[in-house]
Specification:
By secondary structure, the chain is α/β, with parallel strands linked by helices. It folds into 2 domains: about 30 residues, no CATH class; about 230 residues, Rossmann fold (3-Layer(aba) Sandwich), CATH 3.40.50. About 45% of the residues lie in helices and about 10% in strands. A hairpin with a 4-residue loop joins β5 and β6. It is globular. The model has no long low-confidence stretch (mean pLDDT about 90). Bound molecules: adenosine-5'-diphosphate and magnesium ion.
Length: about 350
């Protein structure tokens, strides 16, 4: 905690002597924010990933605006590798976030003895056999679930279609509300659940992208059935869908080292700071992904060209009203990354590209 003078003592007699003026005690100096900033040493780094520039771009956009993202690609294309590197480009936790995160983990009994503040963004990756109670929280003495343990961090659902549909459905409301209410006969508890959802999946049961000219790819109806395992409403709540093609072997062995996480993080921090400033007067609003419908109108206005483009895309791709607001929020983030006050057509066009799964339905 900041703003307190704290003395460390070994024996109660020290306290007595202190108050008798026989002993002096030195206050302990501790600044949590410094600790939060220096923790940013990661063992894994974006520079380990060769190629995949489009995917890295999508992950940077997601980090900048706090957007949910789905990675779709064949096995071995690097989805898990990429997702695990996302925390390394997020801005350091603020002291408030660190306190909040620590509280939740403490309630769940996950902060070890003699451990202080949690200083890293949580990265939770529950196995696909996770129960709905373990995911969203519950029990007779309600305990936070994975979605609350991921608060201020990332919930990574690897191989999304493997999760039980009913388990994914219980996550829908908390995804919208950024908190979960657990009701019991005698009480009800609210746990925060403001996390970034990062999910991965294969594009089909065989693992390949659908290609009508490839005899080895699954037939279209099989691919559709596979995609339908993830319900439309859940898909609608994911702002960015990005295809992760496998990187050919020659490229893997030859490609130069990519940008480091530290360089990408600098840009992310800058974009996040802009958003903090814009939303300064609005409580609990820090980044674009948190914008609610009323505020989307206020902050994500587009001109007539943009409206034209968006209408065309909606008609052609059959987008839902929900994905319409997702596009606007992502476009807002892309504009922020370019320090543009208004959302221009090119920002919208890029945001629309990230609805590739809506296109398939
Ligand atoms: N673009 C890449 N650059 C470097 N290594 C890669 C890349 N893509 C895949 N790999 C290697 O392949 C392994 C498998 O990737 P993984 O992330 O498990 O794939 P997926 O989750 O898509 O099945 C990684 O651990 C890494 O060693
Ligand atoms: Mg994987």
């Amino acid at each position: 905690m900041e703003g307190l003078t704290i003395f460390g003592i070994d024996k109660i007699t020290d306290v007595v002597e202190y108050f008798n003026g026989e002993k002096t005690l030195k206050p302990v100096h501790y600044t949590p924010q410094t600790e939060l900033e220096i923790y940013h040493e990661f063992a894994i780094d974006f520079s380990d990933v060769k190629g995949q520039e489009n995917v890295k771009r999508a992950l940077e956009i997601a980090a900048c605006g706090g957007h949910n993202i789905l990675l779709i690609g064949p096995p071995g294309s690097g989805k898990t590798m990429l997702a695990k590197r996302l925390p390394s480009i997020l801005p350091p936790l603020t002291t408030d976030e660190a306190l909040e995160t620590t509280k939740i983990h403490s309630v769940a009994g996950l902060v070890g003895a003699n451990k202080g503040l949690l200083t890293k963004h949580p990265f939770r990756s529950p196995h696909h056999t996770v129960s709905d109670v373990a995911l969203v929280g519950g029990g007779s003495h309600p305990k936070p679930g994975e979605i609350s343990l991921a608060h201020n961090g990332i919930l990574f659902l690897d191989e999304l279609p493997e999760y039980k549909r009913q388990v994914l459905e219980v996550m829908r409301q908390p995804l919208e509300d950024r908190m979960v209410s657990i009701s019991r006969a005698k009480m009800s508890v609210d746990f925060p659940a403001g996390f970034m959802l990062v999910a991965s999946m294969n594009p089909s049961p065989s693992g390949n992208f659908y290609d009508p000219n490839d005899p080895n790819s699954d037939p279209e109806y099989i691919v559709k059935r596979y995609m339908n395992k993830i319900s439309g409403p859940l898909m609608d709540r994911i702002d960015l869908h990005i295809e992760v093609p496998a990187v050919p072997f020659e490229k893997l062995s030859n490609a130069e080292k990519g940008e480091s996480s530290a360089i990408i993080r600098k840009r992310v921090v800058k974009t996040r700071n802009m958003q903090e400033k814009r939303f300064e007067a609005i409580p609990k609003l820090h980044y674009n992904a948190q914008l609610e419908p009323k505020l989307i109108e206020k902050f994500c206005g587009i001109d007539s060209n943009g409206q034209e483009l968006l209408k065309k895309a909606m008609d052609k791709m059959g987008l839902s009203a929900r994905s319409y607001s997702r596009i606007l929020k992502v476009a807002r983030t892309i504009a922020d990354m370019e320090e543009s006050d208004s959302i221009l057509t090119q920002h919208l066009a890029e945001a629309i590209q990230f609805r590739s799964l809506d296109r398939n339905n």
